Amino acid sequence: MNLKIGIVGLPNVGKSTLFNALTNAGALAANYPFATIEPNVGIVPVPDERLDVLAKIYETDKIVPATVEFVDIAGLVAGASKGEGLGNKFLAHIRECQAICHVVRAFKSSDIVRADNKPEDDILKQAKDDIDIINLELQLADEETKQKVESKRKKDSNDENIHYLTEKPVIYMFNVDENGLTDKDFQEKLKDLVKPNETIFVNAKLEEEMADMNRNERKEFLESYGVSEDALGELIKTTYKTLGLQSFLTAGKKEVRAWTIQKGATAPEAAGTIHTDFQKGFIAAQICNYDDLKNLGSEKAVKEAGKLRTEGKTYIMQDGDVAEFRFNI
Ligand SMILES: Nc1nc2c(ncn2[C@@H]2O[C@H](COP(=O)(O)OP(=O)(O)O)[C@@H](O)[C@H]2O)c(=O)[nH]1
Ligand SMILES: [Mg+2]
């Protein structure tokens, strides 16, 4: 599953700062060759502590995490749909994404000019105005798409599979300053602006400052600001929740690996994320629960405890299932 998240927002709200912080954090999260494909596209491993535990149990050095692709999408400004700024260049990028991370400026700084060049005044009100501008541009872009589709439909009646931008799930990421990180009252007010969407509060500047820190240093640094998880962890957790995703794991001497699937996916569907042949020729899945494996310490012990199950075609996968598939080709 190729999970792709587009980072949008007005200029100067901290998108690129966050994009860099996310890809940086990802590089640390695993010994996995992550990549920045283009300056604005990065593939980031999904942090998953379970993989480290499994690697020890199965005595392997190879850890392959699930990945998320982030795209730093510039060009959304007031009037973009009418050609302002980079015009409609952002459209194609957003269209390819399963979810949108909408970054909103909610920090105080007289140095960083706002996109509208207005002085900072009421942060809440300006945040609301900024959000409305972006959402209006997305709406206008959809209107244009709709018109194009309709005029095309008159010519040929092929029903196309159109993905409207405004139908994509949006997670609001408020870029707050140090006070905003712990000010629950302020956070509630920001949440109210975008209900019922999910919200995340981060300080892009702090995230950026952690670039050269190791995992422990990052943890301590964030905790000193009252933050328990970094932006990458928060965003991935929230995205999985919003899109109804979960992970299953495969483990062996060759490698341990995490895979992303929909909640409610069946065993053959899970097998299909590894290889389409696994789904076509699916026979059965041998499944144990990650916690049992962790507590009992080996696959052998899990088996002896009667906790290694054989599941068939209708089995619904659970988060943290460690699976091995049997199939015919
Ligand atoms: N004070 C402060 N400045 C920030 C924060 N996040 C980003 N900036 C600064 O705002 C400017 C614009 O940030 P950038 O990430 O390039 O914004 P983008 O246009 O949305 O990509 C840069 O000078 C950043 O250093 C923040 O949380 N606090
Ligand atoms: Mg930028």
Helix content: 40-55%
- Counting DSSP E segments of at least 2 residues, the number of strands comes to 13
CA gyration radius, whole angstroms:
22 Å
Q: Report the span from N to C terminus.
A: 22 Å
**Integer average pLDDT:** 91
- Main sheet characteristics: 7 strands, mixed
Number of helices: 13
| Ligand catalogue | guanosine-5'-diphosphate, magnesium ion
Brief write-up:
The chain is built from 13 helices and 13 strands. It has 329 residues and is α/β, with parallel strands linked by helices. A hairpin with a 4-residue loop joins β9 and β10.
Mind explaining what this structure looks like?
There is one protein chain. The protein has 329 residues and is α/β, with parallel strands linked by helices. Helices cover 40% and strands 23% of the residues. It has 13 helices and 13 strands. It has helices spanning 15-29, 49-57, 90-95, 123-155, 178-182, 184-194, 204-209, 215-223, 231-243, 267-274, 276-280, 290-296, 299-304, and strands at residues 3-8, 35-38, 41-45, 63-64, 67-72, 99-106, 170-176, 198-202, 245-251, 256-262, 282-289, 309-311, 321-327. Strands 2-3-5-1-6-7-8 form a seven-stranded mixed β-sheet, with helices on both faces. Strands 4-10-9 form a three-stranded mixed β-sheet, with helices on both faces. It has a three-stranded antiparallel β-sheet with strand order 12-11-13. A hairpin with a 4-residue loop joins strand 9 and strand 10 (256-262). The protein is globular and about 70 Å long. It starts with a strand and ends with a strand. The chain binds guanosine-5'-diphosphate and magnesium ion. Guanosine-5'-diphosphate (GDP) is lined by residues 9, 11-17, 107, 109, 112, 175, 177, 203-205.
